[in-house]
């Protein structure tokens, strides 16, 4: 007997892209600590933008939420943001988690379509709140 | 009668060479000692920590990165990419396409989605005309200036004219910067409250390192003997010569691969000179000269920490061309400013640095070359002259191999950049052999450079770029 | 005759060679040891990483994880250094600090007394990063040391500021008045409200570098609380202090009466023009717009740039810049307008 509530749960693919391994594991754990039961979660971390795009994760049906690092060697966070937002077929939600703090940089990211911008260093609670806010937006 | 005179001359000649070598050895030893003490102190710091406090200061001292590019289609994208993730708050990247005949321009425009912009450029330094200026629509701090071919110095001057920021650095299209390069190099400028107007960082050799997407993933030692010998040379030059000389504001050369300059002073000095092969050294000399003539108390310093990785020739022909060119560049800079030599008006630059460069760096190869000939001559003359030859040989061992061995160990003692034990051993053993093959070879090439100059040969040869990064 | 020299040189050369070989041997051994130690540290770090995160992020109780050996301590130090750069929440910071104090207090106590300069400096960096207030006394003790290097001194003062040491004002005013502006700023930035207030109150007694630093910190924090104070300073002082006060006001973004500042837009001093333009932009005073447009045509690049930035802060800023771009006869002004229209993307 299938529970209808589980059947109706949409999938939410959360992708973390940051070259810092510690941040990757930390974010995965932070997300797992949160109570996100509107969706069935699929959380995966990537070392860089190239690997992310090669994995064709965005092809999966469901909602997509990206947490992007800022200054990264292979593909900069802004570049990934740009590429992801340029594909108009898919709506991807993006949270920037960057060391770049200048208002110009933050402005640029938001203009490019980032849903939120958190600077490093960050507070875990704060990050969780922001993530929740974006997830609320997804459910609507 | 004639016989005796002839042999006397030979003896005198031999002694002359021997005395010269002894003086140089003493000089090198002094510098080695100074470097020894300086290095030990600083280089155990958790350096990253030291720079975080400066972040606000760095913010107010933005840097323009000028990348002159001539036929660099192999590596230009990677170079620019590595620059984009540089750890520094505010900077702009200006790629100057010096009339490339390959697809450098097209590749840049496509990769970074560059759009033409119209911009008035104040001609503070005279240059060849600019054709078009582009700005990346993805990254607003990336510019591309297309111009008529005019050489590296001319391209740098164009970049200088166009740049918006008070500091600039010039970077070869094939060099890879360490992420904290600017932090390390700008620190002396900030610490001195801008009394320091130019700062150079140490250059390391990239051949043999694992580089991906414009970043050093792993430091490694190449297997190519030529590369290994060049590494030893660089270690020696940087550790010994530049620390010792820099400390007392005696620094003359900032290697073309990486250095940050104050734009104002560079323009005051007239920008880069286009008719010389050693344009970076020549500029540094000219700035020094300007400061002394105007009695301005500013400095040029050097940061021994490696900040830049660059490709060196792996092939004898290309290495030979490079060495000939460098030596000619050295001469041109020294000769153009020959008035500084022994001139107390120019302080320690005139009294110590210039003589050093004339006597040791410039004339050195000639004397060494004569020394080699002499040694061979002695073997033929036999008898007491064989002892002479042995004497000179021992001196040249001290002069060459021993100092190189010391440099290798000094590097390991303080900076420890090479990860494997076998790396050090390899470097050490190779440096023992320096006197026997590598040194005579480079000495000969440098003399060739002088010869070419005298004969009026202007061919500079093209440095074929392989592209360092995958 | 030559034989003597040859003998001498041969002995010299061979003994130097021997020396170098011995040094090589020493370095090889040292390096092998370091490689081994590094491997152990990395493996220990991997082992405890998850636990450390749980402690810092979730408040899990610290249990069963030793930090008695040097390797474990170094591993802990490195791991905590990474976390300190990433996390900044109040609770996280406190837990991290407690963890550091528990494991590394003795380690740093020893290091502070070390003969090696780099050991002491590194210890100071970490004490500050990990906010190890329990080591305050040791730090103060270090500052009294006779031959303390300048860099250490500065760092000690910064730590004292971080730890909100109450006698800091006295120290800076009376003992260390030779510090540069930049050094003072680094120290003052770390002070909390109360202690900083003390400095503000002692403004007139302070040396110029300290005064600049105080004003700069007000700028950095955009501390509206000190607006009145800053306006007073602006009125009473001249020269560089006046300029810095003006800059602080432009960062605060509000003044009681904008009229007197409008005059500054015509100052013969380019820095004053620039900072005045910045102020007009922050305050968004429409009366200043015509002059700002003129300043887009200023001789000095910095003034033009600031004018452009200020104009773009007005609600109709883009329209103004557009019209300059289309109508101005000055190429540099058009350039600057274009720049600010396209800032960002």
Can you put this structure into words, describing what you see?
The complex is a heterotrimer of chains A (140), B (470) and C (345). In chain A, 43% of the residues lie in helices and 24% in strands. Chain A has a single domain, classed as Rossmann fold (3-Layer(aba) Sandwich), CATH 3.40.50.2300. A 5-stranded parallel sheet of chain A has the order 2-1-3-4-5, sandwiched between helices. Chain A has helices at residues 4-8, 21-33, 49-54, 77-86, 103-112, 124-139, and strands spanning 10-17, 39-46, 63-69, 92-98, 116-119. Chain B contains 15 helices and 12 strands. Chain B has helices spanning 2-42, 47-52, 55-59, 76-84, 104-111, 152-162, 181-191, 225-247, 263-269, 279-293, 316-336, 347-381, 384-414, 421-432, 438-455; strands spanning 63-69, 91-98, 114-117, 130-136, 142-147, 167-170, 176-177, 196-205, 210-212, 215-218, 259-262, 299-310. In chain B, strands 3-4-5-2-1-6-11-8-12-7 form a 10-stranded mixed sheet, sandwiched between helices. In chain B, helix 1 (2-42) packs across helix 8 (225-247) and helix 8 (225-247) packs across helix 14 (421-432). Chain C is mostly helical and 345 residues long. Chain C has 3 domains: 34-143, no CATH class; 164-256; 263-345, Leucine-rich Repeat Variant (Alpha Horseshoe), CATH 1.25.10. Chain C has helices at 2-58, 70-86, 90-112, 117-129, 136-143, 150-162, 168-175, 181-188, 193-201, 208-221, 227-236, 239-252, 259-264, 270-283, 289-295, 301-312, 317-327, 331-341. Chain C is extended. The chains are: A alpha/beta (140), B alpha/beta (470), C mainly alpha (345). At the B-C interface, helix 13 and helix 14 of B face helix 1, helix 4 and helix 18 of C.
Query: What's the rounded overall pLDDT mean of chain C?
Result: 88
Strand pairing plus helix content of chain C: what structural class?
Answer: mainly alpha
Instruction: Report, as a whole number of angstroms, the end-to-end distance of chain A.
Output: 29 Å
Overall number of structural domains of chain A? 1
Oligomer: heterotrimer
The largest sheet of chain C, given as strand count, sense and whether it forms a barrel, is:
none
Radius of gyration of chain A over all CA atoms, rounded: 15 Å
State Rg of chain C.
29 Å
Number of strands of chain C: 0
> Unreliable runs of chain A, pLDDT <50, ≥5 residues?
none
In percent, how much strand structure appears in the residues of chain A? 15-25%
Distance between the termini of chain C: 80 Å
Helical element count of chain A?
A: 6
Strand count of chain A: 5
Most extensive chain contact? B-C, 42 and 44 residues
User: What are the low-pLDDT stretches of chain C, counting only 5+ consecutive residues below 50?
Assistant: none
**Total of helices of chain C:** 18
Main sheet overview of chain A:
5 strands, parallel
């Amino acid at each position: 007997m299938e529970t209808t509530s589980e059947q109706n749960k949409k999938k939410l693919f959360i992708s973390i892209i940051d070259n810092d391994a510690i941040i990757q594991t930390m974010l995965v754990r932070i997300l797992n600590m949160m109570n996100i039961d509107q969706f069935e979660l699929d959380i995966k971390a990537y070392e860089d933008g190239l690997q992310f795009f090669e994995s064709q994760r965005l092809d999966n049906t469901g909602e997509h939420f990206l947490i992007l690092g800022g200054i990264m060697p292979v593909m900069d966070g802004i570049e990934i943001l740009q590429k992801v937002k340029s594909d108009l077929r898919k709506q991807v939600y993006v949270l920037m988690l960057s060391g770049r703090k200048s208002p110009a940089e933050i402005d640029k990211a938001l203009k490019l379509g980032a849903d939120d911008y958190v600077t490093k260093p960050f507070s875990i609670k704060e990050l969780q709140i922001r993530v929740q806010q974006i997830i609320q937006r997804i459910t609507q | 009668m004639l016989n005796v005179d002839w042999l006397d001359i030979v003896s005198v000649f031999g002694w002359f060479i021997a005395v010269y070598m002894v003086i140089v050895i003493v000089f090198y030893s002094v510098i080695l000692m100074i470097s020894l003490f300086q290095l030990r102190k600083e280089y155990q710091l958790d350096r990253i920590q030291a720079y975080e406090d400066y972040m606000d200061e760095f913010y107010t001292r933005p840097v323009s990165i000028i990348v002159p590019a001539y036929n660099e289609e192999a590596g230009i994208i990677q170079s620019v990419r590595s620059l984009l993730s540089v750890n520094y708050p505010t900077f702009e990247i200006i790629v100057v396409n010096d009339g490339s005949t390959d697809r450098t321009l097209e590749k840049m425009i496509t990769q970074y989605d560059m759009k033409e912009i119209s911009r008035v450029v104040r001609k503070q330094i005279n240059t060849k005309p600019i054709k078009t200026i582009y700005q990346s629509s993805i990254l607003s701090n990336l510019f591309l200036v297309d111009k008529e071919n005019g050489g590296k110095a001319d391209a740098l001057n164009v970049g200088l004219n166009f740049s918006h920021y008070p500091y600039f650095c010039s970077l070869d299209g094939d060099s890879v910067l360490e992420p904290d390069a600017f932090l390390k190099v700008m620190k002396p400028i900030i610490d001195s409250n801008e009394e320091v107007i130019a700062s150079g960082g140490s250059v390391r050799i990239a051949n043999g390192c694992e580089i991906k997407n414009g970043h050093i993933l792993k430091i490694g030692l190449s297997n190519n003997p030529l590369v290994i010998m060049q590494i030893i040379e660089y270690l020696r030059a940087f550790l010994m010569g530049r620390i010792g000389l820099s400390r007392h504001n005696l620094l003359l050369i900032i290697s073309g691969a990486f250095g940050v300059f104050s734009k104002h002073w560079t323009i005051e000095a007239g920008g880069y000179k286009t008719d010389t092969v050693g344009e970076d050294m020549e500029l540094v000399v000219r700035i020094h000269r300007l400061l002394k003539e105007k009695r301005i108390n500013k400095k040029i310093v050097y940061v021994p920490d490696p900040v830049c990785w660059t490709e060196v020739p792996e092939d004898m022909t290309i290495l030979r061309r490079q060495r000939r060119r460098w030596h000619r560049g050295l001469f041109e800079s020294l000769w153009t400013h020959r008035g500084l030599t022994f001139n107390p008006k120019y302080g320690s630059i005139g009294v110590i640095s210039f003589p050093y460069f004339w006597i040791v760096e410039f004339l050195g190869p000639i004397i060494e070359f004569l020394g080699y000939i002499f040694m061979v001559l002695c073997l033929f003359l036999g008898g007491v002259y064989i002892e002479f030859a042995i004497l000179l040989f021992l001196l040249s061992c001290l002069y060459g191999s021993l100092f190189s061995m010391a440099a290798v160990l000094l590097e390991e003692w303080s900076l420890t950049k090479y990860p494997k034990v076998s790396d050090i051993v390899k470097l050490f053993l190779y440096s023992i052999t320096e006197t026997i093959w590598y040194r005579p070879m480079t000495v000969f090439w440098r003399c060739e450079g002088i010869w070419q100059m005298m004969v009026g040969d202007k061919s500079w040869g093209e440095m074929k770029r392989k592209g360092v990064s995958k | 005759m030559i034989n003597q020299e040859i003998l001498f040189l041969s002995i010299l050369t061979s003994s130097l060679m021997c020396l170098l070989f011995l040094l090589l041997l020493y370095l090889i051994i040292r390096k092998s040891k370091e490689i081994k130690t590094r491997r152990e540290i990395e493996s220990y770090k991997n082992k405890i990483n998850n636990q450390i995160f749980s402690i810092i992020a979730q408040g899990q109780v610290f249990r069963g994880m030793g930090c008695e050996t040097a390797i474990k301590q170094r591993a802990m130090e490195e791991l905590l250094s990474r976390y300190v750069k990433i996390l900044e929440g109040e609770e996280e910071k406190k837990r991290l600090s407690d963890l550091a104090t528990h494991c590394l207090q003795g380690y740093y106590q020893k290091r502070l007394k070390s003969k090696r300069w780099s050991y002491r400096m590194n210890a100071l960096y970490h004490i500050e990063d990990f906010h190890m207030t329990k080591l305050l006394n040791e730090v103060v003790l270090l500052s009294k040391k006779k031959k303390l290097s300048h860099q250490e001194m500065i760092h000690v003062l910064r730590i004292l500021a971080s730890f909100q040491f109450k006698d800091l004002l006295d120290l800076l005013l009376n003992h260390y008045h030779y510090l540069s502006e930049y050094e003072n700023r680094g120290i003052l930035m770390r002070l909390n409200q109360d202690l900083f207030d003390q400095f503000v109150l002692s403004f007139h007694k302070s040396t110029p570098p300290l005064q600049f630093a105080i004003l700069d910190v007000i700028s950095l924090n955009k501390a509206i609380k000190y607006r009145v104070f800053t306006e007073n300073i602006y009125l009473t002082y001249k020269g560089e202090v006046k300029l810095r006060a003006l800059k602080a006001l432009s960062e605060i973004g509000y003044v009681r009466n904008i009229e007197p500042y409008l005059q500054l837009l015509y100052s013969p001093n380019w820095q004053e023009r620039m900072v005045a333009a910045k102020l007009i932009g922050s305050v968004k005073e429409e009366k200043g717009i015509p002059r700002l447009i003129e300043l887009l045509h200023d001789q000095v690049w910095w003034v033009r740039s600031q004018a452009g930035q200020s104009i773009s802060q007005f609600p109709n800023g883009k329209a103004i810049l557009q019209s300059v771009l289309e109508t101005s006869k000055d190429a540099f002004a058009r350039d600057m307008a274009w720049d600010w229209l396209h800032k960002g993307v």
